[in-house]
Amino acid sequence: MVARQRPPPLQAPLPSGEIREGFKFRSGRLSLDLASTLSGRRTEAPKEQLRTPADLGRWLVLARVAAQVQEPSDEELGQARELREAIYRLAMSRARGESFSARDRAILNRWAAEAPPAPQLGPRGLLWAGAGVRGQFVVLARDAAELLGGPLAENIRHCAQEDCGLLFVDTSRSGLRRWCSMAGCGNKAKVAEFRRRQRSDAR
Question: What region holds the Zinc finger CGNR domain (predicted)?
Fold first, then answer.
């Protein structure tokens, strides 16, 4: 009697939603999600979330750029941070209607010019495979170039919450979205306004 082969075990689903293992995915674009890995930019003590190469490897998987956790080098961690900061400054310039920095454009364009990895349909959706961590930087750089140079660039906004530094793409019908997330910063603002009104009424 031939033994039946057991089907391979199902992979555990990746976390989904706006916050995945502490990383925020609220912007609507991969490149701006990378920029959000330095959180609290408008505070006195911004928090670096890509502290180690392992953090970067984990973020790439959670962002659905990598199929599995890799082991970026210290050099690649530094390159990721440099690309991230260039994207952030370019996006801020676009949101303010200012000219792009030539240095930041050069950093972005250098990565965007490299050969991209191949898109693959994986068990959890779209993946990018074939070029390692550097190839995943190419995906992020090209996403930023297409965003900043395309029609959606006019929709880049800065979250109105004072202690939030996130940028996002406003795809609302009115074009008047103020918060990176209604469940996060939007709700915090509503609670703060409610408490302010309560204090005012109590006087």
Answer: 156-198
Write the CA distances from 198 to 72, 191, 195, integer angstroms.
Answer: 51, 11, 5
CA distance 132 to 128: 9
d(CA 123, CA 53): 25
> Whole-model pTM?
0.83
Rounded CA separation 26/158 (Å): 12
131 Cβ contact list (under 8 Å, min separation 6): 115, 116, 117, 138
List domains and CATH numbers for the chain: 19-202 (1.10.3300.10)
- Structural tokens at position 35: 């920029």
Give the alpha-carbon dihedral of 75, 21, 155, 148, to 10 degrees.
Answer: 20
DSSP conformation letters of 33-91: HHHTTEE-TTSSS-EES--SHHHHHHHHHHTTSSSS-----HHHHHHHHHHHHHHHHHH
> Tell me: the pLDDT tens digits for 98-155?
999 999 999 999 999 998 888 888 777 777 776 689 999 999 999 999 999 999 999 9
Report whether pLDDT(61) > 50.
Answer: yes
Locate 130 and state its tokens.
Answer: 């074939």
